[in-house]
Amino acid sequence: MAGAVVVALALVFGAWGLWRVLSPAPGDLRGRFGDSQRQARSLQAQVDQLQQRVTTLTRSDQISREANRDLQGTLAERDEEIAGLRADVAFYERLVGSTAQRRGLTVHALRMQPQSDMAWHFTSTLTQNLNRGAVSAGQLTMTIEGTRNGRLEKLAWTDLRQQPTAPGLGYSFKYFQQIEGDVFLPQGFAPVRVTVRLVPQSGPPVEQSFTWADATRDAAPATAAQ
């Protein structure tokens, strides 16, 4: 029994000594726990920085896309302006250039734009380069031919303006001018042809006809009178 007690005590003290040797001291546990906390805080800081960078890059990409769309829109507008200017230059060269064909008072173009079911806004471009420097002046009226209830019908200027004594629109220019106004079509009237009539202060009247399809087709931007 005494020998067994000695052996048991030896085993107990041996185990206690082994545990003291292998187990970490309380200070080591605290040190390791502190290191883990510092590493966790460092990792969280890195995650926060990365999230901030992602947010910044996402916003930057959004701004770049919006700026690109605005730029594309601006370029499209500039292309339209350039096309319009080129058309104007070509028009001026044909009218007053050294090789321009000399022509008297002419209705160069007519554009009709709908304002409502019955109202239409017209823009008529008048030109002349036969007498350079001379002023062309007079009155503009128009008539519109079409059908209503299966019958041909021609609307006079007074009908189109809905005034029994509607005066013509005055014009006065050296090389070209655009005359604008409004006309009104009756219900059920299907227009086919428009005839513009110019009555100058001197000289015979001038008439120019346009199909309704041509008159309602998109035209060049308006230009100022010269």
TrEMBL record:
UniProt KW keywords: Coiled coil
Top-level taxon in the UniProt lineage: Bacteria
Recorded coiled-coil stretches: 33-60
Record-given protein name: Transmembrane protein
Lineage of the species this protein comes from: Bacteria, Pseudomonadati, Pseudomonadota, Gammaproteobacteria, Lysobacterales
